[in-house]
Amino acid sequence: MQKLKRHFILLKTTLLFSRKNVDIELVKKICNSHTIKEKIMYEKFISNLMKTLLAGVLFCVSGIVSIVSADGHAVTLRMSTPASATDQRSIALEKVFAPAVAGFAKYEPHYNGSLIKQGSELEAIASGDLEMSITSAQELAQFFPEFSILATGYVHQDAAHQVRVFNDPLMDAFKAKAENELGVKLLSIMYLGRRHVNLRQCRDEVNVQTPADLAGINIRMPGTDAWQFLGKALGANPTPMAFTEVYTALSTKSVDGQDNPLPTVVDAKFYEVTCQIALTAHLVDLNYVAFSKSVWDKLSSDQQASVQKAAVDAAESARQIQLQKEEDLVSFLKDKGLEIYEPNLAAFRSHVQKMYLETDASDPWPEGMLDKINALGN
């Protein structure tokens, strides 16, 4: 990635500050020295930067590029997200972040992946085609495998633990790597919710307290290797199945249960065909507010402070709304007849973490990182 970064800088400098043509064939030869992932980023960078140079309006003053929007703002902050406009993350950014930076920046959200295809946002920021996105640890792990620890079952314990981990010095090296090698600055962490085990059997038939209690229980989980591994680590028999088939499978007893956050249980009406929810909280899901490092570097220190605070405040606003929603849904689901209870989380956490540490899934994790994260928990 360091070599890739050097090529990024070399190409950007050549294209922006000289009148010489770039030897594309030479670029392709250089590209051949990278991994497939780096080739994709490299070629996308060249293509997108060329388009920007042809279509954009660039003003070079003393060697510094300034992007001036039509309404006179110093910068337009385009946010590309696969989320909808009614998603709590989207609402918080529009109602909290946007007004806080309005004095010097125009916040321009693009929802439902309408600007940048989902999964390509980080590459777009790296290539200069996007200013902001909402990204995940899973996406960052595609570039930096050590980020996979932050997308692992029973690493984050709750919303508050997520914030403590993100703000702790143990994250400094992670953040620096994203900035230095990808040009992405992680401003704040957003809470998405906790995934729990939702079973059709009632508690008098299956009382989930430890992973041993899920032995032989068929739980639908997403079909990727990572999800299937987590299902086994929970002690269950994970069953891959399309989400659209889960309701019918539960009603016909083809599977015993499913795992999802409480809002999904309600939205999909799984409460109609299940009897209990064990609050296993086996994955406390998250997103990061990602910001272009090149844009950040062009802001004044006061503007940087405003952007940073706005991102933190927006994340906190969305977090509190999501937590309240989860609390309200517990009452709703109990009223629907479901028994909701908390199992022995310490037993689940130690069992799942042990299974990860015994496989190569934990190989990219920095030594001692998991212990440090655990120490920040309850």
Describe this structure in words.
By secondary structure, the protein is α/β, with parallel strands linked by helices. The protein folds into two domains: 2-190 and 287-320, Bacterial extracellular solute-binding protein, family 7 (D-Maltodextrin-Binding Protein, domain 2, 3-Layer(aba) Sandwich), CATH 3.40.190.170; 194-285 and 323-375, D-Maltodextrin-Binding Protein, domain 2, CATH 3.40.190.170. The protein contains 15 helices and eleven strands. Strands 3, 4, 5, 6, 7, 8, 9, 10 and 11 form a nine-stranded mixed β-sheet that branches. It has a two-stranded antiparallel sheet with strand order 1-2. Strand 3 (75-80), helix 4 and strand 4 form a beta-alpha-beta unit. Helix 1 (2-17) runs parallel beside helix 3 and helix 4 runs antiparallel to helix 13 (301-335). The longest helix is centred in the C-terminal third of the chain and has 35 residues, at 301-335. The two termini are 36 Å apart. Mean pLDDT is 86; it is low at 1-10, 12-21 and 52-72.
